[in-house]
Amino acid sequence: MGDQNGGTQSKDSYNDMIKLIGFSDEAKAIENRDFDSMNDIMNNISDDDYKKMIDIIEENGYGSMANMMESIGREDMIGFHGSMMGR
Question: Distance (Å, rounded) from C-alpha 25 to C-alpha 64?
Fold first, then answer.
């Protein structure tokens, strides 16, 4: 994933961002490469939680990621995550 400066975002930075937005179970699943849990989380995320995630990501310096997530929408993001995980 790219950061604001076009560089590569580190795995630790991404996990910190997920924890920061209050999704500690999601961060644990990412750290443990638990694809089944990540899939369950994404398939069950509410519209409100998806919006909260976008807002917090934006507020913490990940504007380009927030813009992408907002433009794609929750349903397409769920599909995107599923395809990344071979689902």
Answer: 24
pLDDT tens digits for range 48-75: 988 988 888 888 888 998 999 999 999 9
The predicted structure's pLDDT at residue 20? 63
Close Cβ partners of 79 (under 8 Å, ≥ 6 residues apart) = none
Rounded to whole angstroms, the Cα distance separating 62 from 57 reads: 5
Rg of the Cα atoms in the chain: 12
Tokens of 27: 């961060």
What residues does 8 pair with on adjacent strands?
2
Q: What is the pLDDT of residue 72?
A: 92
Amino acid at residue number 64: S
pTM above 0.70, yes or no: no
Give me the count of residues in the chain: 87
Residue/partner pairs of 4-13 with CB below 8 Å, 24 or more apart: 4/61, 4/62, 4/63, 4/64
